[in-house]
Amino acid sequence: MDAITRARPVGSGDDRDFYHSHEEESVPQGYDHFFQTRYLVSALRVRRPDLWMVGDFCCYWERGNNRRWVAPDAVVATGPPVAERPKSWLMWEDPPLLFVAEIASDPAEGRDRTKLEAYEQHLQVPEYLYAYPPSGELKLWRQVNGRYQPVTPREDGRLWSAELEVWFGYDEEGFLRAYDPDGKPLPTHEELEERREAEAQRAEAEAQRAEAEAQRAEAEAQRAEAEAQRAEAATLRADEEARLRAEAERQLEELRAELARLRGS
After folding, report:
1. Is 201 part of a structural domain of the chain?
2. CATH number, domain with residue 158
3. Which of 173, 192, 237 is nearest to 36 (CA)?
4. C-alpha distance from residue 183 to each of 35, 100, 157, 186 (Å)
5. Distance of alpha carbon 187 from its chain centroid, rounded?
6. How confident is the model over 147-195, as pLDDT tens digits?
7. Domain that includes residue 77, residue range
8. Domain total for the chain?
């Protein structure tokens, strides 16, 4: 959201509703900007569940004055605002901000120091990330003795956030991503769920393959058992046939012997 000062009445500021969300003044953003901002907030939530994060959220720094505000594309604080359903962040009442990010839609925004001064001097945010994806521009400032100092990128252009303990940099498609300390891209909640779903599907497929293999092994065992039973039955038949044949031969010999005795008497 693009705003620093808007024409709003100044009042006592004791009621949080006095500090508007300024939804009516939001500047429509493009498709790429929407998904870029959504990714950053979601990925950082997955990485740092101990912190509070939100996108496009109005931040006020002067109590009783609702004309001075900024709405970063990504906001990270040490905890959620004290209100149950906050519409804005109030510097004098809510947990401290740690990090803010702006995803520019116009390169002129990078030359406008108004927001940088608001984050540095008024909100006193420890880190401020600025990105203009179409050109690959990426800058990170860190508070040093109350003033922003630019963070030096490493050779691949990535910037290290000491507050969030993540790297920021563009991937091969020019999409701004956050990376863990080892350089692995941080997934969003959706990507994490997709991975879990894919892993669950792979595990289920593996279980089905194992079950099918067990069924094949059981069927083979049953066939082997049936074959063994048939072989045993064949052996028993052969043994019985041999016994009967021997018995018949013995009886035949006895008859021959008896016949010979009778002829000789």
Report:
1. no
2. 3.90.1570.10
3. 173
4. 21, 21, 12, 9
5. 4
6. 999 999 999 999 999 999 999 999 999 999 999 999 999 987 677 778 7
7. 16-187
8. 1
